[in-house]
Design brief:
CATH class of the largest domain in chain A: Alpha Beta
Largest sheet of chain A: 2 strands, antiparallel
Radius of gyration of chain A: 15 Å
Distance between the termini of chain B: 72 Å
Number of strands of chain B: 6
CATH topology of the largest domain in chain A: Alpha-Beta Plaits
Distance between the termini of chain A: 24 Å
CATH architecture of the largest domain in chain A: 2-Layer Sandwich
Number of domains of chain A: 2
Strand order of the largest sheet of chain B: 2-3-5-6
Radius of gyration of chain B: 21 Å
Largest interface: A-B, 31 and 33 residues
Structural class of chain A: alpha+beta
Strand content of chain B: 15-25%
Oligomer: heterodimer
Strand order of the largest sheet of chain A: 1-2
Shape of chain A: globular
Strand content of chain A: 5-15%
Number of helices of chain B: 4
Amino acid sequence: MVCSTGALHKEGDKTAFDVDKCTGCGLCQLACPFGVVWTDKIAHKCDLCSSREVPTCVVTCPANALSLDFDLANRRARNRAAMLIAQGRRE
Amino acid sequence: MIKVDPGRCMGCLACSNVCPSQNIVRTDTGEARTIHWKRCKEECDLCVEFCPAKALTLVPYDELAPEPEISFELVECRFCGSHYATLPMLMRVESSLPSGLQKDARGLEWIWICPQCRRDIEAENAAAQVVRERKRLSP
């Protein structure tokens, strides 16, 4: 929403990042309520290891505690957004 | 050379990041950020093209024109007190948010909290959730 070059954009369920278009303006970092996006000269954001089938954090977790579950992630994101909006309306 | 509209510039440094000849100099002193545009002879307009605020224009080279410089105070994080962004950048982000997202579930106005603290708060909440879940599941 704040990215003016389309470097950060939606690809289906994922927010994808095109590094060649990033200007490092830092607006995405300021617009993320969870502090997930990071910028120095360019933005950094977890892309769930887009070049791999399974992210490396899932593969290497010694307790097998991590898994990739889009349904769960989307459900959580939707719940969270609904909560935020409900809170905003109550204010 | 580059002409700057000080009313539009929000101090994001996109221009400085994309300039191939380091003609746009940034100075962060911790509490303030100064951006200085050197008089450049290039016909390149990368900074003009990439400015998210449309604050820059390419004008003919003029040896006598003063070099533009703008200073921004950096906003203080309400949690840790670190100076993390310019006010116009935060206003721009706030204005592009859908209504109802300015506050989080606990009523925190997260825009005025630095990204590092937002991340810490989120991590604490997630950890608390896991602990609650484990307590619920364990007999």
